[in-house]
Amino acid sequence: MTTTAPADDVTATMLESPAPRGRRKGTLVGLGVAVGTVVVGLAVPHAVTDTYRMSLLVDGAILSLMAIGIGFLARHLGIISLGHGAFFGAAAYGVGIATTNWGWTPTVAVGFGVLAGTAIALVMGLLVVRATGFGFLMLTLALSQALYALSVQTSARPLTGAHDGKLLSYDREMTFLGLSQADVMNPGLFWPFAWIALTVCATVLWLVGRSRFGTTLEGIRENEERMRFSGYDTFGPRLAAFVLSGAVASLGGALFAINAGYVSPDILGFGKAGDSLIAALVGGFGLLAGPAVGTFLFVYAQANFNFGGNLHLFTGLALIVVLVFMPGGITGAFQKLYHRIRKGRR
């Protein structure tokens, strides 16, 4: 696209022009879809009566929170993070410490866990958001691994359990939003909380992406230097986006701890963040739902194809197929097919 307007004027127009009526209508439609998605999802336990399959769906919803956080950064800033396992794990350990060591109620502990994970995201963001590309990826991985190393130290055993992990325990009279300790481990009863959390977080990220702030992020993604020359701060928006995505991952970690009743240092390691990144790549970054779709498929595949110790082989083959034949991921491939069908009908 060619234009004779100065770069500064073009950027200012893009960021400051009010949303058209069609954009507001699209937002209302999207919110309606979100409400419908919540309602449909709440009926899942009535359709899936098998406890094992229901537990896989709960795991998929919880891990999708970390995946959509990774996808948000990739979509709007073009950066890939391997540090979201730190936020997920920090929130999980925060819940474990608050309930077991301090005797807090599960509901308050979950709030504390989310705040703890978000605080870690803020500290990490201050250190890494100026980096881009491979440097950003490696910095997030390094800081995440540093947190893992701290969690397994012998001196940290009273808080984290070191390599043994931490078993959550609290009084039977205490509940999580009305659910007892036995109830939160029941996938059918816990599913509404996981599903509503996923849908609400996805909707918030979608609204942020459509806002003026989201447009600013995309401007930074396309040409950060031009944005700075146009008078826009690029550090603040990058940091805010990073912390927001970290907060979403932290919510996933807090829900994971309450549901599992146990926290292992493995959730702070490379494996958990790497699995979420692979799932997001398979699902696709082009659509907000892509990472969630990829995560549900990944959890299902992990449960059904982990025979003979060949799970990583199948995962690698699936990733190669997607990257070679569906570079936009599964949702990207369906999106292209949908557009082709629409063009064919015209």
From TrEMBL:
<feature type="transmembrane region" description="Helical">
    <location>
        <begin position="54"/>
        <end position="74"/>
    </location>
</feature>
<keyword id="KW-1133">Transmembrane helix</keyword>
<feature type="transmembrane region" description="Helical">
    <location>
        <begin position="28"/>
        <end position="48"/>
    </location>
</feature>
<feature type="transmembrane region" description="Helical">
    <location>
        <begin position="313"/>
        <end position="334"/>
    </location>
</feature>
<feature type="transmembrane region" description="Helical">
    <location>
        <begin position="278"/>
        <end position="301"/>
    </location>
</feature>
<keyword id="KW-0472">Membrane</keyword>
<keyword id="KW-1003">Cell membrane</keyword>
<dbReference type="InterPro" id="IPR001851">
    <property type="entry name" value="ABC_transp_permease"/>
</dbReference>
<feature type="transmembrane region" description="Helical">
    <location>
        <begin position="189"/>
        <end position="208"/>
    </location>
</feature>
<feature type="transmembrane region" description="Helical">
    <location>
        <begin position="86"/>
        <end position="104"/>
    </location>
</feature>
<feature type="transmembrane region" description="Helical">
    <location>
        <begin position="110"/>
        <end position="129"/>
    </location>
</feature>
<dbReference type="Pfam" id="PF02653">
    <property type="entry name" value="BPD_transp_2"/>
</dbReference>
<feature type="transmembrane region" description="Helical">
    <location>
        <begin position="136"/>
        <end position="156"/>
    </location>
</feature>
<keyword id="KW-0812">Transmembrane</keyword>
<feature type="transmembrane region" description="Helical">
    <location>
        <begin position="235"/>
        <end position="258"/>
    </location>
</feature>
<dbReference type="InterPro" id="IPR043428">
    <property type="entry name" value="LivM-like"/>
</dbReference>
<protein>
    <submittedName>
        <fullName>Branched-chain amino acid ABC transporter permease</fullName>
    </submittedName>
</protein>
